[in-house]
Give the backbone structure.
Amino acid sequence: MNIVVCVKYVPDATGDRRFNDADHTVDRVGVDGLLSELDEYAVEEALKIVEASDGSEGEVTVLTVGPEQAADAIRKSLQMGAHKGVHVLDDAIHGSDAAATSLLLAEAIKKVGAESAWDLVICGMASTDGSMSVVPAMLAERLGVAQVTFGSEISVTGDMVSIRRDGDTATETVEASTPLVLSVTDQSNEPRYPSFKGIMAAKKKPVETWSLADLGVPAEQVGLAAAWTKVDASAARPPREAGTIVTDEGDGAARLVEFLAGQKFI
Amino acid sequence: MTAPLDLFAIDGLLDDEERGIRDTVRRFCDDRIRPEIAGWFEDASVPARELSVELGRVGLLGMHLHGYGCAGTNAVSYGLACVELEAADSGIRSLVSVQGSLAMFAIWRYGSDEQKEEWLPQMARGEAIGCFGLTEADYGSDPGGMRTRAKRDGDDWVLSGSKMWITNGSVADVAVVWARTDDGIRGFVVPTDSAGFSATEIDHKMSLRASVTSGLSFEDLRLPASALLPEARGLSGPLGCLSEARFGIVFGALGAARDCLETTIAYAGERQVFGKPLTAYQLTQAKLADMTLELGKGMLLALHLGRLKDAGTLRPEQVSLGKLNNVREAIAIARECRTILAASGITLDYPVMRHANNLESVLTYEGTSEVHQLVIGQALTGESAFR
């Protein structure tokens, strides 16, 4: 089974993140980036599926759209065990929204498919920066294939994929046939650490870099100018106010309960 | 704000592979070691067997050795892994050092093909744990005086004597034991289920509590001829292994220091004294600046030694430079950090005193600071002043 995993390079959530003042896009200067943690689950799921179908010649291709540093996200995925990488890189892509991103991913996936057919596209449930969760659905639409989102348990038999989806009120198990776009949650698996052998092997794995021209996508269809949505204004949240300190003068428990009840926590 | 080692732009001295390995070990420690370590230290109980398998899965065991299922990384990567492990706890780094640099290295460097095939792959996976028996109760800095003896009996060897302060001893599946023979000091690969082998865990330690330390005893322990390490003759065998392990300590000790310093900077930023944070006082900043200097200088020295090792030109006296300086400075940093944390610093809620206590062992094991001074002194003067 051949699988394409879409991954995103995001600013490190533990760093100081902000939008830049000029165009309100993510300011990438001075902030370390990394493979979106939620995408690690997608990589892990793909690796598990390919490893479980032993004997077959399955490959995991990891695909990203992003600036030059986004190669880090590909490298991390290759270190975990993915077989090859594709990086869609073009200055005109800066500021692309979800719709344009899904267009670029879809065209890149078609190009991957022209070389060797794919069975599954797996995405994370959301990016840890934009957290819109819409790209998998848009991607399935553009590719004209079925989509199942928010899978928390995946099993594959032949060309049938069984997916458990955990909702707030019910759990459902759905089945879909390949080709299929799937997104997986952070409950789906436990992403592996890149082993040292994996880290050393990653250097030798092929990574292709494709421009808009390689994908046949006109520059007018992507980037900030083509975005259907844009950020008009952004402001940092005011720092949180200091909490209330209750000094226990024998009535600490009662005052604590009073506070919690007042805030409707209990 | 800038992290201490970022001031030195250390990352720029590493390649992608080295950073990748460091990041993996850091994350492993964050996920697996840090949440548990205070409890392991408090209880003096570490799940060594379970942990070994997990460490093996990452590739940490014998990581800088080539072949036999070992990852085969460069020496700098091994050093960086030691930094991350020891930033979690010196005891965990000790487990990895003893397995990879002492037990596995001895077999890898001096063993027969059969010994390598039998032990190295399962040790790399962490399914078999190794220990290294050189030190005895009365022979530490002068291992050449050892009393443990191996006598020939037909083709067999009969081992008798005891070893002390042996990391991993009670949990080991295999011990590399050094003994006096008619042919000088020789090494033996001893399965710990051999008749006549026993290990006793040393209790009541104030240091390396998250590490198994044992005494080993051999009572007329019979070994086949194939147990002898064929390529090691004399003290240079075990000393070669120690030089490997010391190399890891040159890096590792800085991990403990870094953890103390980062903890302390965060603590001092939060801690209000006379109405402003402790970090806003000049005395605190002077301490932090001085500690950062020593940490960074130590890291630059470690990386320099690592590059020499990868180039194949590192000499034992240069490893002594690194161990003497970096452990000495690490323990000084840990103690200085404690003065900033004050009372909080003595608890296991913070890692500082745990690191300081661990570093007391690191200061003297694998060659005391004084022995390293003498090694350096000899290199400088040509005079051997050990005895």
About this structure: The domain at 2-226 of chain A is CATH 3.40.50.620 (Rossmann fold). The radius of gyration of chain A is 21 Å. Chain A has one domain: 2-226.
